[in-house]
User: Which sequence fits this backbone?
């Protein structure tokens, strides 16, 4: 193993130059080509003044430009910051500003979103990879490597490698900082646990701004394996996704449960042969057990694993299933993996007994460095034990069973998961309250057909017939699509507890009665 | 036929008549149409052209671009 994430690509390019590193829509990038493209990109970035420690944005859909961008930025000694092209321009502009990003890598297919982004981000100095009619200087990556394109020589594994942004409670996202060391530790541990070999063909369904993508983007190259990227179109057309898993002869799959349950519901699964799959990993949220059973029956040769870990620690537990689960008991989070320590603490930070509920805290090599430019949040996120060992407070409530496996019991705060994405309900409420004529808002989650959906109770003086549509349009400018409530309930006033707080429990009960 | 499809996309899915859409634009990958929008669009195609789209036909080859959708409709309606 090298000491830096991009060493994986250099090593694989030396050992197996013609092996396919990444594939997308029947197109391939070999390790040699990936190294060449990333080196040329690193050269362009350095010419633009990008130096060690700088942050560079990636504004791309799922395509082969993404791995080249990731490794090009790392080769240049900088850290990559994936932006979500589907997120509102104001949110992406916030990330650019927060991280002090001057250069963004993109391509021509993003022309609409880029035009919107540039209106909100006037400080952006340059785009790389585009040739569009836009007001900002643009640079294409040359086809030939310039002679002096040797890579940055500095190699400190504790250098920042990437920052992933996630919802914050106050209405602005926060950046999770990972180093080469934490990223490589994750790649090494995951390759050990799932026995990843160079023959493996890994299905990467997650967009780059979502932490599950680190498996396809980091573990794949570390093992010299092939990572197959599904496109944004695949996420909307489950039949094509099911076909891709078969046609690409994928051996390992990793996604949120939703991608697989959609295949089950409208993906023509019965006609698909998935016999090449040897391991299916899912994470992000619980898998509805009945769907898991049906899917596992379709893949008798595959081991399935429930993978758990907040983006702050990448992964920290797994639970393997070699045969379909019986009954409808939720699947445990499972056991803590190697090079990782766990604590389960009560509200007074005392260790709880086996079987008792408490908050899960994690210490691991795969752990983040902290939140970008937020020492206040970073300090609150960590706990130091008696020996000054640093643990990340997950905010997840768990208990340990007699066999030492962890089980998920809920959240300590108001963060929920929908379609695998983290949503802070407080952030959605903060966005709602900025709507015109809206005086009060409460957002809560309910289960509907095994899926978590968001409901907003709103109090408004507006008599506008299409008021809810106006609210949705307003929210679209502020929060990502998955944070927009699926249902709106108009109320004269919000129910309150005797202490005067919004009574979320009564709102949830009301909504269940309506359903 | 592509005019009808593009007109519907602009008016009903994007809600912006000034948006430029070409028959070759990647509807799903460029953020033009989301999952819900695609379902709505398929509903429109079914009622407008009088056939139903079986789940197995909802694939990239048939729905990635307006041009792909057009040739799929022609194949289904024999026009």
Assistant:
């Amino acid at each position: 193993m090298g000491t830096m994430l991009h060493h994986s690509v250099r090593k694989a390019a030396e050992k197996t130059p013609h092996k396919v590193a990444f594939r997308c829509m029947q197109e391939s990038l070999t390790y040699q080509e990936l190294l060449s493209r990333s080196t040329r990109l690193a050269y362009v970035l350095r010419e633009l003044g990008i130096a060690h420690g700088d942050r560079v944005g990636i504004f791309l859909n799922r395509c082969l430009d993404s791995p080249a961008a990731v490794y090009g930025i790392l080769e240049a000694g900088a850290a990559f910051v994936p932006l979500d092209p589907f997120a509102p321009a104001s949110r992406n502009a916030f990330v650019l500003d927060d991280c002090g990003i001057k250069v963004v890598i993109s391509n021509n297919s993003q022309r609409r979103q880029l035009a919107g982004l540039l209106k909100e981000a006037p400080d952006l100095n340059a785009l790389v990879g585009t040739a569009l009619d836009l007001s900002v200087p643009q640079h294409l990556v040359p086809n030939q490597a310039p002679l002096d394109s040797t890579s940055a020589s500095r190699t400190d594994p504790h250098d920042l490698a990437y920052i992933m942004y996630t919802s914050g409670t106050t209405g602005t996202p926060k950046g999770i900082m990972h180093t080469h060391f934490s990223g490589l530790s994750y790649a090494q541990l995951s390759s050990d646990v799932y026995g990843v070999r160079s023959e493996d063909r890994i299905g990467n369904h997650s967009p780059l701004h979502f932490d599950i993508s680190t498996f396809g983007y980091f573990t794949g190259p570390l093992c010299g394996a092939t990572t197959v990227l599904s496109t944004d179109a695949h996420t909307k057309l489950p039949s094509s996704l099911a076909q891709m898993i078969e046609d690409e002869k994928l051996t390992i799959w990793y996604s949120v449960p939703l991608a697989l349950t959609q295949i089950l519901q409208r993906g023509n699964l019965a006609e698909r042969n998935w016999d090449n799959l040897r391991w299916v990993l899912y994470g992000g949220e619980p898998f509805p057990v009945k769907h898991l059973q049906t899917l596992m029956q379709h893949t008798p040769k595959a081991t399935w694993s429930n993978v758990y870990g907040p983006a702050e620690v990448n992964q920290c537990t797994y639970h393997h299933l070699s045969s379909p689960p019986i009954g409808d008991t939720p699947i445990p989070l499972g056991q803590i993996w190697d090079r990782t320590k766990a604590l389960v603490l009560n509200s007074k930070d005392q260790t709880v007994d086996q079987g008792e509920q408490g908050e899960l805290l994690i210490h691991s090599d795969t752990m983040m460095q902290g939140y970008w430019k937020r020492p206040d949040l970073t300090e609150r996120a960590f706990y130091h034990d008696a020996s000054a060992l640093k643990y990340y407070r997950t905010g997840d409530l768990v208990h340990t069973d007699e066999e030492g496996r962890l089980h998920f019991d809920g959240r300590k705060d108001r963060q929920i998961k929908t379609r695998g994405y983290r949503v802070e309900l407080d952030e959605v409420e903060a966005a709602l309250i900025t709507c015109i004529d809206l005086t009060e808002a409460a957002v809560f989650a309910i289960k509907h057909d095994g899926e978590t959906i968001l409901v907003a109770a709103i109090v408004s003086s507006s008599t506008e017939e299409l008021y809810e549509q106006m609210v949705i349009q307003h929210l679209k400018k502020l929060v990502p699509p998955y944070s927009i409530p699926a249902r709106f309930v108009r109320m004269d006033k919000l129910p309150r507890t005797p202490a005067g707080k919004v009574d979320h429990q009564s709102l949830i009960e009301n909504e269940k009665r309506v359903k | 036929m592509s005019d009808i499809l593009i007109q519907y996309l602009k008016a009903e899915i994007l809600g912006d008549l000034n948006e430029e859409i070409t028959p070759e634009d990647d509807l799903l990958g460029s953020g033009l149409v989301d999952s819900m929008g695609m379902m709505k669009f398929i509903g429109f195609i079914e009622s407008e052209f009088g056939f139903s789209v079986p789940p197995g036909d909802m694939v990239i080859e048939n729905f990635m671009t307006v041009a792909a959708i057009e040739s799929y409709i022609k194949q289904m309606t024999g026009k």
In short: Residues 31-47 of chain A form the longest helix (17 residues). The domain at 415-514 of chain A is CATH 3.30.300.30 (GMP Synthetase; Chain A, domain 3). Chain A has 15 helices and 27 strands. The two ends of chain A are 54 Å apart (CA to CA).
